Amino acid sequence: MERALVLIKPDGVERALIGRVIAQFEEAGLKVTALKMLKAGNDQVSKHYTDDESWLVSVGKKTKQSYIDKGIEVKESEREIGLRVRSFLVNELTRSPIVAMVLEGNACADVARKIAGATEPRKADPYSIRGRYSNDTYSLADKKQRSVRNIVHVSEDSTIAEQEIKVWFTESEICKYERPDESALYG
Ligand SMILES: Nc1ncnc2c1ncn2[C@@H]1O[C@H](COP(=O)(O)OP(=O)(O)O)[C@@H](O)[C@H]1O
Ligand SMILES: [Mg+2]
User: Fold this and answer.
1) What angle, 0 to 180 degrees and rounded to 10, lies between the N-to-C axes of helices 78-94 and 53-69?
2) Which residue segment(s) compose the domain that 82 sits in?
């Protein structure tokens, strides 16, 4: 089985969505194997959102595309956007408590990202967590000089998940148990 790291960001905690968010992952057959609430530090968030070039550029690409779709010209390079967003994310994720969890299941990261929805809530599927509980946009986030408030973080894939899990949990904090519905799900 694969694993994924999920963070309920400060906006999700403040809006009292912890239970609803966890329930959606659990209902899809993903098992919660570790869970904690914490006030994240700068170091932790900087390790989580690394300065990996391809991630910085991918953040910039998605943002630029959204502006181009609206007919708005963007002068910043993709990498510059990525760096700016990364510093917004450090501020946002350290400003108030978050909930961190590890999920386990078949195609875990892929399924959990589908449940989370697209990055920009305004464009996310209305049945996804981000589409259902938020209406934030890149342009509002830019105006407010903060990261997009989209309730959750979910690992991009299972390799990144393993790196991210190490930032927030020790292996001894991750529990092993069986859900009675596992044989119905995976048998
Ligand atoms: N242009 C932007 N302006 C502000 N915040 C952004 C922007 N692009 C992305 N973000 C924030 O950075 C987070 C990480 O970006 P990314 O990894 O591309 O998205 P995802 O969380 O969907 O994997 C997003 O969830 C969002 O909170
Ligand atoms: Mg991401």
Assistant:
1) 100
2) 2-179
186 inside domain: no
pLDDT tens digit at each of 187 positions of the chain: 999 999 999 999 999 999 999 999 999 999 999 999 999 999 999 999 999 999 999 999 999 999 999 899 999 999 999 999 999 999 999 999 999 999 999 999 999 999 999 999 999 999 999 999 999 999 999 999 999 999 999 999 999 999 999 999 999 999 999 999 999 999 9
CB-based contact 121:148 (threshold 8 Å): yes
| 185 in any annotated domain | no
Ligand 1 environment, Cβ below 6 A: 58-59, 62-63, 81, 85, 88-89, 119, 138, 141-142, 147-148, 150, 153, 156
Q: How many domains does the chain have?
A: 1
CATH number of the domain where residue 115 is located: 3.30.70.141
Backbone φ and ψ for 3, nearest 5 degrees, come out as: -125, 160
Please tell me the distance between residue 167's alpha carbon and the centre of ligand 1 in angstroms. Answer: 19
Q: Which ligand is nearest to the CA of 160?
A: 2
What is the pTM assigned to this prediction?
A: 0.97
Ligand 1 site-directed mutation target among 114, 119, 139, most atoms within 8 Å of CB: 119
Centre of ligand 2 to C-alpha 153, Å, is 7
